[in-house]
Amino acid sequence: MYPKTSETKVLRDPIHGYIHIQYQVIWDCLNSREFQRLHRIHQLGGVFQVYHTAEHSRFGHSLGVYEIVRRMVNEVEDINQSLSEYEKIQVMCAGLLHDLGHGPYSHFFESLQTQTHEQRTCQLILDPHTEVHQALYRCDHLLPQYVVDILMHRHTKALMNQMISSQLDADRMDYLLRDAYETGTSYGTFDLERILRTMRVKNGVLCMKESGMHSVEDYIMARYHMYWQVYLHPDAKSYEILIQLFFSYYCQSDIHIPVFECLRHEMTNEEFIEMDECRMMYGFQESSHCEDKILREYAKAILDRHLLEWQEDPSEEEIQAIKKKIEAAGYDPSLWFVEEKKKSSAYLPYTESDSIIWIWTRHYELKPLSACSEIVKALLRMENTLEKRIYYVKL
Asked: One GO molecular-function annotation for this sequence (predicted)?
């Protein structure tokens, strides 16, 4: 009923071996300009400034998520039996397109706009002028809306929402394996094959057999280590803060760098599609020669990797002393000093506030992972203490 490609398309992938594409709608979405743009968006924002091989893109990750979803709907018998062919197409499209709305340098870009990347993703999918919308619409007129419903976690079939966004979803499983591989960090790995083999659907809920619980524990610990060692690395954050300082100053000034003018207002979909990291880098190069001294300094720091210094949990006396040193060196602390406060809950690899990983016990009961795993019980007992980190110009 739903058109397939003339032959199975295969794309080489370092994580999954091959990406397999059989449906024409998937192939058409992949070849849309909105999806091709993801080649020009780093998967890990500023992390490539710390782990120099982390140059992989949202494009590769999105294909990886699609491939895991494709395997789930075909290889996990309970999922295969629970979904119709059309529903499988819906959730595979959602896996492929889930990151369509990401701006340059990952999540940082959201600070420049009022929309989240999820909202922008849905806008692009529902916009009748985009190639990705047209590709979905050609397959079925209702497909764009169904894909958005999954991404917004409101599809009537909860299983499909869980596969894309939950504590144990295709998105997290791909980015952990891919990011560990691309950064050269072994502690982000876990047994994907075992997880898929022990995945079940009970009472309409995605769950794991109790015999697969240890693989899930490994997955959660992989998240813990990757967040601490990679995603929240202070030098990577330093690079992103430099970019934030640049745009905070630029958007409040009368300076005009043509490529950045669209950032002074809420961007249209067309402006967003054209805004990628190549365009950003060109703008920084232009800014490094502008008349404004502050903007020049920001731009050169970004281009030449002159990262900000950082310090954790400084006392108020230390903060004031650092600000005095900044002034003595000829810098304005309001432009070159940033204080960040975060709750340690941001670093937890697993909470049950958003969603629960369910375990199908040997007694044929559904129980939360926290009721079955001593490791998870210990993680949930971690204290939520307030942490402070300051960033400032290198003196």
From this structure: dGTPase activity
Query: In the prediction, which pLDDT does 386 show?
Result: 58
Mean per-residue pLDDT for 273-294?
96
Domain boundaries, the chain: 4-233
* Tens digit of each residue's pLDDT (9 = 90 or more) over 108-141: 788 888 899 999 999 999 999 999 999 999 999 9
SS3 assignment for the chain? CCCEEEEEEEEEECCCEEEEEEEHHHHHHHCCHHHHHHHHCECCHHHHHCCCCCCCEHHHHHHHHHHHHHHHHHHCHHHHHHCCHHHHHHHHHHHHHCCCCCCCCHHHHHHHCCCCHHHHHHHHHHCCCCHHHHHHHHHCCCHHHHHHHHHCCCCCCHHHHHHHCCCCCHHHHHHHHHHHHHHCCHHHCCCHHHHHHCEEEECCEEEEEHHHHHHHHHHHHHHHHHHHHHHCCHHHHHHHHHHHHHHHHHHCCCCCCHHHHHHHCCCCHHHHHHCCHHHHHHHHHHHCCCCCHHHHHHHHHHHCCCCCEEEECCCHHHHHHHHHHHHHCCCCHHHHEEEEEEEHHHHCCCCCCCCCCEEECCCCCEEEHHHHCHHHHHHHCCCCCEEEEEEECCC
Question: 0.90 cut: is pTM over it?
Answer: yes
CB-based contact 231:188 (threshold 8 Å)? no
Band of pLDDT at residue 1, cut at 50, 70 and 90: confident
Q: CATH number for 4-233: choose from 1.10.3210.10, 1.10.150.120, 3.40.50.620, 3.90.1200.10.
A: 1.10.3210.10
Q: What is the pLDDT of residue 90?
A: 98
Residue 228 banded pLDDT, cuts 50, 70, 90:
confident
Do residues 102 and 57 touch, judged by C-beta distance below 8 A?
no
